[in-house]
């Protein structure tokens, strides 16, 4: 993509915080960071990707304008949960303050109140979002998924991706879903809803990863991050997303 | 009973070859197993003199089986191995069928089977092999297989129940090497540290935390992905020294990953009694297994097909292509059928950014052609998009100058499609 003509008029800078890249990275979640970074660069936004890992401080975390956290395997998730305990307060505050973030699968579940494992153990989570996750020990929800975005987001359209999760997430009253499931499972077996939006944070089971085929979500996050940082309304210059549109259509036609 | 099944199975096998539906490597097995589920175990019991070798792991099963077969043949043994790479239960039953005579006698010294990593524990309930080679564990087909640690733990549990089975482990892969802790007298293979070229782990490496104590592993040298000279600074678990030391291997097979496949095969061959010269003689004669660096001619040009089905495999394929050609013309074919895994998110874990500027031209095709095109676009290059695989191959061949090679990197089912288009015949 060469978008040198698409530069923003104003010189902006963003720091993307990639949470636990060597641990929470199971389903190509890195693609989300690649997309955010490139879509900033293509608009002339000065962008830095900062890796927040085991041993990083609260201060490191607070230096970020936009966060991304992926999913993980069980062993890795345990390591992360242990380390995040030390940064929990700052992390929760950032979400409450409206620092935009994208949280996938395990990262999404972690924002809720608790995670109930198949054997009934309740593991407390970050507790920022009014939701909880249960793993009933039944079949995993796996496959292509299509979702119509919630109007609350301020953008419209159908997003497509791939889901693969054993946990079922149930939203409380004070939190909105990311969208309505058109095809596939979504956050749980019954509600026909997928993901969650809280302030400027998006949680979802979409991997695949979510952003390459659904660039409107990437731009929503970038826009929110710039608006928060610079305290002004930001209009991102459009990029050529015809390949992403073709990729979405190809999957939708098959579903 | 057994005889009727064998005759029936062999008829099905012959028929499927005759009607051109492939070489009969899964169907016959499916039929005999559905009539008699213990078929494999029974046939093995009837032939106790025949030793079985299982080759498992994410990448390199087919090639390692082929290599071991060649080395043991050179050592004077009679070998049967499953050339088609059908590595589930049906494929194994078909293999046993093909290896046995009509009366149920097997006249081979060794049967070598590649075994799907998820099926290995199940297979070990049916058949007791003499050797199990564990090549590596990388992320692959997460939609079906789940997590690496889960697979490793399943292996660990099933290995603990075995007696008199020689387990052969890749010591350079921490998760595989860790399995040696609970096993009596495992043997290890690996590469000499001098052959490891990288100094640090790149993205997409899977097992970079200690499987025993969960601390971050440290590496003095890295071969590729998480394979290298590793140790845990916290609990002291470290890379075991390879049981046999080999010099770098010479053969037609390129790429560091093939050095590992050769080390695995050579380690078992040596344990069985093959000499160094028998091993190197065998290596001089081997050709790539189908679809694994396989070379084919079309319209006077050379095409090389290199199976690329997961992030580590694809990175290794690309590095191999770049070692053969400075500015290659490449076609990526991405399918999402059951044998490929229906989840294509893995393409984002490849290190495409690192290689993209070296390509003369990138073509993309397959069921998920637009997903692949997007991956290439975000890596910084415009791919030529071909919804039709025939057209992609035709264009790539046409654009390749005489004397140069056109490289095709397909997923598994895509590789079968590519071969069918080029050779006009299917293999499975």
Strand order of the largest sheet of chain A: 2-1-3-4-14-13
Number of strands of chain A: 14
What is the CATH third-level topology name of chain A?
A: Rossmann fold
Query: What is the strand content of chain B?
Result: 15-25%
Q: Uncertain spans of chain B, ≥5 residues at pLDDT below 50?
A: none
**Approximate strand percentage of chain A:** 25-35%
Order of helices and strands of chain A: EHEHEHHEHEEEEEEEEEEHHH
- The appropriate CATH architecture of chain A is 3-Layer(aba) Sandwich
Helix count of chain A equals 8
| Multimeric organization | heterodimer
Structural class of chain A: alpha/beta
Integer average pLDDT of chain B: 90
The CATH topology of the largest domain in chain B: UDP-N-acetylmuramoyl-L-alanine:D-glutamate ligase
Helix and strand element order of chain B: HHHEHEHEHEHHEHEEEHHEEHEHEHEHEH
CATH homology superfamily of the largest domain in chain B: Mur-like, catalytic domain
In total, the number of domains of chain A comes to 1
Structure notes:
The complex is a heterodimer of chains A (255) and B (428). Chain A is of the alpha/beta class and 255 residues long. Chain A has a single domain, classed as Class I glutamine amidotransferase (GATase) domain (Rossmann fold), CATH 3.40.50. Chain A is built from eight helices and 14 strands. In chain A, a hairpin with a 2-residue loop joins strand 13 and strand 14. The N terminus of chain A is likely disordered. Chain B is of the alpha/beta class and 428 residues long. Chain B folds into two domains: 284 residues, 3-Layer(aba) Sandwich (UDP-N-acetylmuramoyl-L-alanine:D-glutamate ligase); 132 residues, Protein-Tyrosine Phosphatase, Chain A (Alpha-Beta Complex). Chain B contains 16 helices and 14 strands. Classes of the chains: A alpha/beta (255), B alpha/beta (428). Chains A and B meet through helix 1, helix 3, strand 8 and helix 8 of A and helix 8 and helix 14 of B.
